[in-house]
Structures are given as structure tokens and as C-alpha cells.
Amino acid sequence: MSKTDLVKFIAEEAGLTQADAGRAYDALVKGVEKGLKKEGKVTLTGFVTFTAKKKAATTARNPRTGATVPVAARTAVAIKAGSKLKEALN
Q1: Do the beta carbons of residue 24 and residue 16 sit within 8 Å?
Q2: N or C, where is the chain less crowded by C-beta within 10 Å?
Q3: How many helical (H) and strand (E) elements, i.e. helices and strands, does the chain have?
Q4: In a 3-state reduction of DSSP, which class is residue 66?
Q5: What is each CA distance from 29 to 21, 24, 57, in whole angstroms?
Q6: Residue spans of the chain under pLDDT 70
């Protein structure tokens, strides 16, 4: 499902205009980003939990040349499905 499809679904399900649904979607995404930056974790109870995890600097190999390449430290996002989402899919 693309962003456009999801915005249409939100608009129909909540009785909003597509413009309002688009702004709601954008606000949700911005809220998740802000929560991860500030607190390192965002939980939508029963649906999903986003957790920011620190990854240490390491080295990797370029598969083409075999040369060693440094990989900088970074923050990655781990996503864990909640119980209601798991039930809906199974």
C-alpha cells in the first residue's frame, strides 16, 4: 500500500477530506520521528513499537573489489509488531 492509498483509506474511514487525511498522516510520521529522536522509543499500543538503536562503527567489504570499507556509527530503527497486529495477520 502506498502513501496515496493509505491517505485515501484514512479519508474514507475517518470521514475526512484527502487533504486533512494527508496532514494527519504527515503529523503521525513527524511525531514518530520526533519521539524517536527525543526518547528513543515510540509505542502504538497493540500495533507497533519503534525503537532507536545505536550501531557502532565497523568495517565491511566491497563485494566487487574485496576492499575493506569503513562504516560510520549510526542510529538504526528496530520495529516490533504488537499483539493486535500479529493477530490480524494470523
Answers
A1: yes
A2: C
A3: 3, 5
A4: coil
A5: 12, 9, 28
A6: none
